[in-house]
């Protein structure tokens, strides 16, 4: 999986580093696009039944098969390595009684930690995809992140279909990742930082055009408010012609750096071929 693994992120140098930091596919050192989308108008969530041909992976945060490539959110994983850990089977705080804790710390500013879960690979490009979960940030950590990032990624038939979001605490913007250009782009949605000690519900919706090999970020829903975005990117050609399908979660350290933890519950991915 490459989201962030092949591309993610004192005077003038520090300023430039702050502007460039923020995951990458989930990387921390990609530049943000100057072409921002027009600010969307929040709308009520669009109810939709799960299609009968959908495959649903639920409570992914409870699974024991999570993997990590450490600081692979940095380009080429060449940067300094943070201290990081994922703990399963957290009873509190939790909604299901079984949340997961993601933690990051250490002495290296702007470093990151990337975790991913590999699912059975679909044999066709997905026509639509939904990634949702609840996130909880404890008091004391609510302003600590440089960024919080999450993504899904499919590799199939020589193409990488990447679907990534970043809550960027530097600009207070939600950003999407352009996997081909290795840049984060402003989605036009302002980031309202999560109230600490509360659960917040995130839904990211996407679809594919398998004929033109184009991926679409359709909408982001935060705590019941849906923001249509309709941002498209071309799928990225790759020499890997095999199949792969993952979802991922990443934490980025700020410039101090400030250690912090977040909790995730009810993580679910729904894909339709």
Q: How much helix, percentage-wise, in residues?
A: under 10%
Q: What is the ordering of alpha helices and beta strands?
A: HEEEEEEEEEEEEEEEEE
State the domain count: 1
CATH architecture: Sandwich
Summarize model confidence as the mean pLDDT.
84
Largest sheet: 9 strands, mixed
At a glance:
The chain has 1 helix and 17 strands. With 273 residues, it is mainly beta.
Descriptive notes:
- With 273 residues, this protein is mainly beta.
- The chain has one domain (11-272): Galactose-binding domain-like (Jelly Rolls), CATH 2.60.120.
- Helix content is 4%, strand content 47%.
- The chain contains one helix and 17 strands.
- The strands form two sheets. Strands 1, 3, 6, 8, 9, 10, 11, 15 and 16 form a nine-stranded mixed beta sheet that branches. Strands 2, 4, 5, 7, 12, 13, 14 and 17 form an eight-stranded antiparallel beta sheet that branches.
- A hairpin with a 4-residue loop joins strand 9 (159-168) and strand 10 (173-178).
- The chain is globular, with a radius of gyration of 17 Å.
């Amino acid at each position: 999986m490459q989201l962030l693994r092949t591309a993610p992120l004192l005077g003038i140098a520090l300023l430039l580093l702050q502007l460039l930091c923020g995951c990458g596919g989930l990387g921390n050192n990609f530049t943000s696009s100057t072409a921002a989308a027009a600010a969307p108008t929040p709308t009520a969530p669009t109810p939709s039944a799960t299609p009968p041909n959908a495959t649903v992976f639920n409570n992914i945060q409870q699974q024991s098969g999570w993997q990590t490539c450490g600081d692979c959110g940095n380009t080429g994983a060449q940067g300094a390595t943070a201290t990081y850990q994922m703990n399963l089977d957290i009873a509190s705080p939790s909604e299901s009684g079984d949340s997961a804790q993601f933690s990051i710390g250490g002495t290296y500013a702007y470093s990151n930690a990337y975790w991913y879960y590999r699912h059975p690979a679909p044999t066709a490009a997905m026509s639509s995809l939904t990634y949702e979960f609840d996130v909880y940030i404890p008091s004391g950590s609510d302003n600590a992140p440089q960024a919080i990032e999450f993504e899904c990624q499919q590799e199939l038939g020589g193409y990488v279909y990447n679907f990534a979001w970043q809550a960027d605490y530097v600009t207070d913007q939600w950003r999407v990742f352009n996997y081909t250009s290795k840049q984060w782009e402003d989605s036009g949605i302002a980031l309202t930082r999560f109230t600490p000690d509360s659960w917040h519900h995130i839904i990211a919706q996407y679809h594919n055009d398998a004929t033109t090999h184009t991926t679409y970020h359709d909408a982001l829903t935060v705590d019941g408010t849906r923001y249509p975005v309709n941002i498209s990117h071309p799928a990225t050609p790759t020499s890997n012609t095999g199949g792969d399908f993952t979802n991922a979660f990443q934490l980025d350290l700020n410039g101090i750096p400030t250690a912090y933890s977040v909790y995730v519950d009810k993580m679910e991915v729904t894909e339709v071929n």
